[in-house]
Each structure stands twice: as structure tokens, then as C-alpha cells.
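SAMPLE LOG
Freezer: B-3
Tube label: C17
Construct: single chain, 373 aa
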Amino acid sequence: MNRHASYLLALFALVALVACGHRATDAKRYELKGTIVSVDRRGETVTIAHQEIPGYMEAMAMPFKPKDSWVLDQAQPGNRIQATLVVDGLRSWLENVVITQETADNTAVASAAEPEPGAALPDFTLTNQDGKRIAPGDYRGRALVVTFIYTRCPVPDYCPLMTNHFAEISQATKADAALYDKTHLLSVSVDPEYDTPQVLREYGAKYLGATDFKHWEFATGKPAEVKKFATWFGLQYWPEGGQIVHSLRTAVIAPDGRLVKLYRGNDWQPAEIVADLQGLKAAMASAMLARKVFTISPRRNWSAPSSIRAARVVPPMAYAATVPPKSLTTTQTIVGATANAETIPTITKSAKRLRRSRRTPAASPVAPTSKAP
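STRUCTURE (predicted):
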């Protein structure tokens, strides 16, 4: 009986050993070489623009999960990387990683300074999907949302995701006619040699479902102009293995041409930008109301309430409204007004009081009369 039990235990151990050995031989290993595009430490992945992996994958850029955590700490965009890609069923990871600082184009991946909120959008000249030249002045008076893509991008959570997000933003703003009219979307290609106006028009039509690009344009241009415009936002990109290796930047620009917010990577959601646009719309309405109030010229001397004199709009949404010197007892310059429950009613009541003062003539002085003795 004991001999039989020992035999069974030995048999089970042998089966387990064979199974483990069989599983180990099922895992396939491939040599991977490429350039690091981005590092997602929260998601524990490194996006790599890699060369062709013979027998497994064409050259492209995609995220990989390293086996060792130190890779996430040391990897930087632009670094060269060499590793063994292990594919075991539905699981894959990188091991034997070697990272070097050498890059394919040092000037292309040099660290670019990013603009601060409130910075003025620089001059640029690009070409849209209709072959028409576009410039910053074309969008003054409207909030502008800019992102960067290229039509051949093979990574689902890069350019296709950005374009899908813009499609959602476009649809969401349609629900508010005033918001839709005061916003504009612009997708700029970082592959100008391939993405001609015709290519961009065909690409955009797939997402728009139509050929009306009045609210959402796709732009290309001379390589130097595109590079100048993209790097202002801190975007880095360069050609690698027949593709374009690039980071991601999406920006919200106020109607006065100043930067409101800069989104890095692909973690943002369309609802966040829609909320930014709605905030700009409210600030613009508030500023216009303040301007309307303070351009009234009453006959009587009148001093604005302190709550209005202190009103401000958070930058960069600043619209100056200057009160004519002869209108009030003192000259006052108001920079917009915050759109909140306290300020707007005060401004509205003040405006009504001013209008009434213009309609009601001042009482004429009456000379005193002497009584008869």
C-alpha cells in the first residue's frame, strides 16, 4: 500500500514537471529594438516605436510591459531600447532590457519648453484639408482646441484615439448651439510629406460622416512650419522605421488667442475639454455683460459698487472694458467679471439703475420765497 502511494506521488511529480517544461517551451521569444516614445508609470507600460520583429510583427509603435520595475524609472522618451519580447499565450512582457541615451535625431527629441497658461499662440501658417491657408487670426473670437495626429498612425490609443475624442467633442458641442458656434477644432498632421490636403480630407470625412469641415479642420503644411507650431506646445516627433514617433499634446486656446490648458498624453476624456469650453463660454458672457454695464454714460455722477469694481476674470479669459472718464466720478478699468451668483445680479441691478437715472430728469432747484408779513 505504501509502495503504491509512493508510486502515485512520483507519477504526479513527473506529470507536473513535464507540464511545467512544456509550458516553458510554449513561450516564444523575439528580439526587439526601437525607440521609447512614452512611459506610463501608472499603467506600467512603455510605448516603443520598434523595428520589424521577423515572424511576429511589422514595424510600429505600441505599448509593452517590462518585467522589471527599474525600466519604468529609468526609461525616457527618445532613449534607444533593446530587449527580449516574451509572448506566452495571452501574456507578453519585456526582459533582458538594455536602455541607451543615443537617439536617432537628437534635435528632434530635445526637451522642449512648454507654454504656460496665458501664453499667446504664436503666428503660424498651415494648409487645411481644402488647400486653404489658415492662420491664428482665423479663429479669434472662438475657442480653439488643437491636437496632433498623422493618418497612418498604427497605434489605436494614439492618433485614432485623439481623432475619436475630437469626434465626441464635436458631437457634444452640437447640443449647445451657442457653444458650437463659438468653438473650433483643429487636428494638425505631423506627417506633412504624406498627409496632403486630399489625404486629410478623406481621413476627416470618415470621422465627420460628412464633408463639412466648418467646425473641425484638418491641417498640414511645410515641414518647418508644422515643426515650429508643434514644438511650441512641447510636442516631440521624428521619423523612425517608416513611421512617425511622437508624443501627444492637446491644447485649449481662448477666443483671445491665449493658452487655457495643455493636456499631455492620452489620459484625458472628451468631457473634460467640453467642460473647459463651457467655462470659456460663461466667462465670455460675463465679460461682455460687464463691458455693457460700464459703457453706459449716466447724467448723474455714479460710482460702481465695490463688488463690481473688484470683479475679475481668471486669466487667460480677460476682456478689458474701460469706462469713459466723463461717465463716472472716477475713471475705472474693469477686466471682465466672474460669472457667479453674487456678481451677475449686482451688475444687472446696477445697469437698470443707470438706465433709470438717464430717463429721470434731475429736479430743478426752487428759489426760496419770502412770506408776507
